[in-house]
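Q: How would the structure tokens look for this protein?
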Amino acid sequence: LQTAHNDGITAYLEIGPDAVLTALAQEALSSDTITAIPALRGDRPEVATALTAAAHLHTRGTPVDWAAVYTDSDPTTVDLPTYAFQQRRHWLDHPKPSAAAAGNGESDEAHARFWDTVSRGDLDSLVETLGAGDEGVRESLGAVLPALASWHAARGTRSTIDSWRYRLSWRPVTTETPARLAGRWLLVRPAHSEAAEWAKVLAHAFEERGAEAASIVIDAGTADRDALIEALGSVSPDEPVTGVLSLLSFDDTPHAAHPAVSRGNAAEVALIQALGVAGISGPLWIATSGTVSATPSDQLSHPGRALAWGLGGVVAAERPEGWGGLLDLPARPDARAAAHAVTALAGDHGESELAVRAAGLLARRLVPAPLLDGSAVPSPWASPGTVLITGGTGALGGHVARRLARRGVRHLLLIGRRGLDAPGAAELEAELTGLGARVTIAACDVSDRDALAATLAAIPPEHPLSAVIHTAAVLDDSLLDSLTTERMHRAQRVKVGGALNLHELTRDLDLSAFVLFSSIAGTIGTAGQGNYAPGNAFLDAFAEHRRSIGLPATSIAWGQWDGDGIAGDGAKQQLRRNGLRPMDPDLAVTALEEVLDHGETRLIVSRADWTAVLATRPHPLLAELPEAREAALSGPAAASEAGGDDGPDLVRRLSTLPEAERRQTVRRVVRTEIAAVLGHSSAADVDDQRGFRDQGFSSLSAVELRNRLSRLTGTALPSSLVFDYPTPAELVDHLHAVLVPEPEPPLAAMLAKIDELESLLSVASLPPLDRDAATARLRRLLDTPPPGEAVPGGMPGGVPGGHPASGDLSSASDDELISFISNELGIS
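A: Here is the predicted structure in token form.
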């Protein structure tokens, strides 16, 4: 590699099964001066990966014979400009569907009626619908009807599952580099060598742009809220803070007292709490490194730091007013990457999940990932030995076990903390045995490494372990203000600790699958899940990490499954209000089978109403989904029409209403949102005088109401809103005062303007002659009487002392004219 590099070679294409040599090349050579791309990845479709590699080489100046790619078709080329796109589109539009394809009300109804008849197997209705009275035709229809019904059912299943499938992608971000920055940034880092190196180059990048960077170094292993408050207060407490960049997540070593939690993750939570107490309102950004795969050549080397990416979404949900975003940095700190990072922190790009790479900034996006029609299964997944399912007697584990038994898996090992004593365990064992599987239900805490090792050792040699499915999870919802390291450990010891134990104890075995049940909470963030969401983000990253070292791994970030589970009724209702609808478990398990059949590494499977999700708070991650694009195209006016008094133009509309109607409008909006949060069918069920707590509000629903009202009013409202104004009536009064403030008294407004003028004159660098002219103008303004008031000396509009005002000189004497001109010119 060094020899090739010295000969001027800058592009390297790895021809092989994965990206092992690509990663080594980037380590051996400077990643800023070379392009290293793998032609294949073990977990990704071959054609897509090869074309992506060719595209990357093409955009970096390496000639690619594109005609060879399209040997079986007649491609159409499109000329593109050689200059920057400048936000202009140059791609061909997809052809619009014909009227027949698009359908209308009548044809849609006939279409639905026909397939309903087929699905019910109603031959008489089908014959009547088609007008096929001939007996031979009827007999033929009867023969084909079952196959047609089966085909339609399969198409419906395919369409439904495809609508649930999403994956993460990364898009380049165009942002102007600010010439100069102002203000003071805090760089909070652990006593960690990698973080120290990055803090050094970042501080220099800030200073080059004209901003101040104050560094705070803490011991992430012992830091708590009080320690962070003290550390924040020690750095010029009276000076305002423009923003905070935390590198605490770089310390991904286990916490001494709570090893399922990393030291950095615990310190990040303490920092978030401390910032609120210290009153620092500048946006918080959390930085990681080696935590996301934003480009084909990225190696996810630090999955433990992904806890921060799960935590960030929760901060955005609970404290949107103080959240900046997440930033993944390259492995090696350098001036170029630091400059991109500072641009990301200070830029006006509207993104909250970014990666800094050699080519610039990349933003994370959630995009649909349907299985294309006719997608061939390379080799259907099979597991000839024992399949271990953690949480196997729970609702999700039970659904998976039943499907595996039907699929022909001969030995199932279901483990859970209570074993056969778990509710329904004996019945599940009997059901699975009836399906032909040999079943072992073992009492084992997956977070206990020794107990798990003993359970694995007891697997019979004739049925060796061949697959692992990790569904176990624990919920312990808590808002960030009350989150403790102990509560974080309680949730993460099963998700994170269990996954690591399974990995370490099975990494030398020949497994056909290593499946991690993650949650969409780790991707988009949910209020109250600061201890649950991070563990799911870890599972997603850990699956990519295992694939990168040649081990099987699959992580699925699930939405809500219908039926029983670890979430209670209240949590399920909140998920529905936030747009996450329950999925049919049978279809969800079918989606799991397809993921295993196609060897996918990471996927989001969720039945979501994205319009409702977007209504809770801004989600740059969702910007490329059709619902987000429709909302962006519709604009505020359409939102207002759709929602009556709701919409981002509420403040403008309030200003146009008569005073008597303004409070009633605010009251109607507030009551409507309260009813939505509480699940009432009508705003009439809301009692204006009854306390929020008495009406069923919890801390989570209080955050949800705050977020909804913030979105509607376009105003940053405090997280303590419901507690500061404990009844709907008091909240209406407060919002009315905020949205429709009393006009400022004339004297106060005048004095405020004078204060501004005084401040301007105190710092303005004016030549003496200009300063005298400005002073003379002020004297003349001061001497001018109010309109209509008589002027001493009988000269209307004049000034005391006989100086006439401008434009009123007809009766002035010579002395008065001389005095006036001298005054105007500042001549003594």
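Confidence is low (pLDDT under 50) at residues 92-103, 635-647, 793-807.

Residues 39 and 50 are 5 Å apart (CA to CA).

Upvote if useful.
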